[in-house]
Amino acid sequence: MADKKTAPKKPAAKTAPKATSRAGEKKKSEAGPAPRIQPTKRLVDSLCYTAAAPESEKIAADLRRHVTVTLGNDFDRPSAYTYSQGLSYAVRDRLIDQWIKTQRSMYENGTKRVYYLSLEFLPGRFLANSILNLGIEEDVEAALKGTRLTLADLEEQEAEPGLGNGGLGRLASCYLDSMATLGIPGYGYGISYAYGIFRQDIEDGRQVEKADNWLHYGTPWGFQRTKHLYSVHFGGYVRPYTDHEGNTRFHWVAEQRLKAMALDIMVPGYKNGYATNMRLWVAKADKAFDLQFFNSGDYIGALENKIMSEKISMVLYPDDTEMAGKELRLKQQYFFVSATMQDIVRRFRKKGVPWTDLPKYVAVQLNETHPAIAIPELMRMLVDGEHMDWDDAWATCVRTFAYTNHTVLPEALEKWPAELMERLLPRHMQIIYEINRRFLQEVAMRFTGDTERLRRMSLIEEGEDKQVRMAFLAIIGSHTVNGVAALHSELITKTIFRDFFEMYPERFTNITNGVTPRRFLAQCNKPLARLITEAVGDGWQTHLDRIKGLAPLAEDAAFRESWLDIRKANKQALGSLVSDLCGVRPDPESLFDVQVKRIHEYKRQLLNCLHLITLLNRLRDNPGLEMTPRTVLFAGKAAPGYAMAKLIIRLISSVAYAVNTDPAVGGRLRAAFLPNYSVSQAEHIIPACDLSEQISTAGMEASGTGNMKFALNGALTIGTYDGANIEILEEVGAENFFLFGLRVEDVLEKRRGGYDPRAVCTEHPELARAIGMIATGYFSPGEPDLYAPIVRSLLDGGDFFMVMADYADYVRTQDEAARVFADPHEWAKRSILNTAGMGKFSSDRSIMEYATRIWGVTPLALDT
Ligand code: IMP
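That is the input. Now the predicted structure with inosinic acid docked in place:
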């Protein structure tokens, strides 16, 4: 199963315990001399191989060696867990060579490097992806022959590192995969949270959060650099002094010190002999024991420093409603940035060139504003540490940094209380004030007399509690700011960053997101990948534009047949998973209608749920109704503090229960909420989806990347004119995309006034009925008011997300999708054309755009 926690199981005792009584001992001695250990060939002899041995034999020997020598287990007593670990080490052995070669060639080429800074990474499981990218799958399968364990068994044992919340973190991992595949000299930097995103259980329809200790059993994939530590400081005060040339300088006298230790995880390129590095920082105490306390007998006090320091990398913040003001989160950000910048600068120093040359050798990409404190940190290093002139330091900074924005929601822009920053990072706060003073002077010169503009653009939001606006800091400290889809990049210049666009129009650009076709097609959908390779040849994995060669085959009935067979098998496999996880067995012939993503009001799982209720009612009214059988699947986590999102999960579970237990439904409709959505669960769901729900309120989803993964695997999208949906529609053709709903302008128009959700409700009897059922407790027997907050937000709260306004068009479009699905060949044709149209959405294309248009880095030529 995809998603179960994979604790090593205790082996069942095969024999009764041996008697150890004195009588027993006596018997033994009476029986003669103790039996000798079987004289076998020494174990280590069977662990060696010659260079000429076939790869499968080498892997088999390495597996045996790691299971025995590295892990201390008996190879002849196979356990999926130890074999999985042993195989991971054997695969890692094959990466290290590549990694060292890559690192050396970066030095030897001396070219510019890019550093991708992200507080989140969602790499997914490593084993399957490493095997794929190394191109050793057949050898591994052969090596496992005779072990009674399959590769799939072993892959399922791996705990997934959930070091991110969703799209932003997964994007960072797709980008590392592409950097490695393209040979871009670069690194990913992040935090090794001991506890990643929480594990989601669904209990009585409710989300219950459990701690996810992904490192509980250690990971074979990371190299701990225990000797490679950086010192990170917090608190204290700033001491001004005069240097020997009479200049006033500043020295930060910090109060708290801790260490950052690197955990390196190798990221292999696709069959190119290249491996880049994801360096994750772990917080360590500066000194484990405070001897002063220890000697005075205060044992706990002595350990306090260790506990306080190490908690910094303990847990990932789950994208909560209220992040601002969380001291630990700001500490995480600075801890990460400080260690990373020290590491970057250490490498740069080896060059022995002037500091003003930093941007010639270093590009730093800020994934959202979470690492934006890197800008004042570099200023501090240059001005305080290197005594660089302010203007030169600032010019160096701006030429080094670039910033990716991921949201159009003003409330999602990060702000930190100035008071908190002053306390934790006093020197940085001074630097921010100085950056702001100079910047506002520039604004005042450009827009004379516009004091309102100065207030709007200031890095400091004035008020009772002053706040530092991190997005503004990121914009003015970067040479390029990019949005993540064409519409999003346009919207930010008109809304949240309008003033900044007027000031620096040349800084703003778009780079549409992409996804790696390795993990999200070649790895997760092997049968389809094989069929595609037969059709268009090998090479689409790294040149995804070649996949357009499938388009003519949409007209080929035999090819469509093969396409449908594969999809059906994928749906059967997902059906078993749904059955295991939710106790609901979907009909593989039915339309698999899937919405998997974070639960958020703007993503509108509610709209999907209202449609589900509508279908239920149609069946209840007319049990003989001929309808396209449908399975509606949901998955996704809600932020623990986001009450409405959690209530939506509960409603979906309740409606699913009603659907699955209503005798009138007769198997034509099934619904389930899959617990604990994750990258590995996505890999099971994506290949089996017919209809991909991308139904956010227009103007609210920056890009989306799930939309790309589904279409790449042949799902048709039902979607709004939002984010990257628009570009998908352009690429696959409007006739192969179920578009519905309001456009951005319509949404804004309605929000300006005159929109009455109650009137809309009355206009559409099916909608009124669905809402009425929720409001009167049909789905919550005994608790009629349970879902009242949902009903209120739709009817009385202004329906900000336009659920009611889009309902009718959505249902009409769903009916159209069901009609098309009833003709399998028509559906297959459109499905093939979706896959064929996805060439643009490879993360390789995105990364090449970053490399040429933002970073100024060129791929390394490696002889593989
Ligand atoms: P780092 O770049 O110092 O973090 O080192 C990473 C890896 O790069 C090392 O393990 C070496 O394989 C390689 N490396 C480091 N410094 C040099 C150098 O000066 N020349 C060539 N390779 C180097």
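Residues 100, 103-104, 107, 347, 350 surround inosinic acid (CB under 6 Å).
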